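Appendix B, example 12.
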Amino acid sequence: MSALALSSIYSQFFSEQSVASTRYDSHKKDELKSIYHQIVRQSEDSPVYLTDRTGASQLYAIGLKEGARSLKNSISSLSSDYSSSILDKKVASSSDTDVVKAEYVGSNNSENGLSSFEISVQQLASPQLNIGAFLPNGSSCGLKSDLYSFDVFINDADYEFQFSVADNDTNEVVANRISRLINRSSIGLNASVISGEGTCAIRLESSATGIRSDGNMNFRITDEDSSKARGAVKYFGLNSVAHEPTNAIFTINGTERTAKSNSFTVQRSFELTLTGVSADESPPVQIGLKPDLDALTENINNLAGAYNDFIRRASEYTENYGKSDKIMREMGRLTRPYTRALDAVGLNMQKDGTLAIDDDLLKSTAKESDPKKSLSAIQQFTDALMSETKRISLDPMQYTNRKIIAYKKPGSNYPNPYISSMYTGMLFSGFC
């Protein structure tokens, strides 16, 4: 599979879906070593396959891999750093999520950290915004035909961009060319072309928010020391700052504070995300912990929601691919041993493989003297799901239409860790 073909498959996939990275996508060195050794062991006695390398097959495998990653991250978010059980996780509450959203990330022993506080938000952190000159869409570009370049200074690094201008290029064509060039670089700068009454301009926004410690702008664009033709920065107004970055300003328990980002942690207990500004004379937002029963039922509802999303996506990918329903049969075999126990506590398996929750039965079971014991089937089911998602992520190509063409001689093989990774085992977000 060529790098260009794989890149186009990933580009198509990510253009259709929003796949965001989370803190659960970061791994320690020993975790990465463990994944590598799993690939080595898997490849050692694995048969040689003739793999379906069509675009539909690759998109199917990538979809399953990302779906499994999303489910695994959702399950991980339901347990704390101090326990792998979703029945232990405390849940934060916010009296006004339109102003502040909260997630509890502290110890399950609330005495070791902050348990409640109040917060008011006066200002959100914002990025730097540049809006260039509005130029006539269909008019010929005012730059002469040549190869141009400009430098972008961002995140204490310097990047040079080069682009060409032909005789028949219009302002809109060149503006879109520059925008695509910047976006493909992934340097923390988002570019787009905005239009208005027959004109267009290049809009540039930094991914980072807040004011730098040195007081400088988050990014700066110049072609003063350009290695190619100059004039593009002035012509398109690329360095024209429309909005300077700002820090978030808020008060916690009456004490004013600032932050460069709208997401931050308070005393290692609550992870806050500022979503709006407090209205004048409105009471502070109360941040605290939900009662244990509410936290428990919310975690189980979130588990069911994440599982149902994965099943629906896997079913959709299978239907579109149309060549293998192995993943659906496998998920059916995984859930079958837990069906009766889950039904008894309010999680009912549906014909399409999804879960429906009987809230009354779930809450009455959770109110028992020992909810961990009465709801143990849910934890066992969760552990099985976690193991399955890791296996799917390791080699999603096993669910595509592939044929065995040779078996290896047992006991005398050398491991080839790239048998899986050459497809999707060690590939992520379009690059190795």
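The CA atoms of residues 137 and 198 lie 6 Å apart. The domain at 127-243 is CATH 3.30.70 (Alpha-Beta Plaits).
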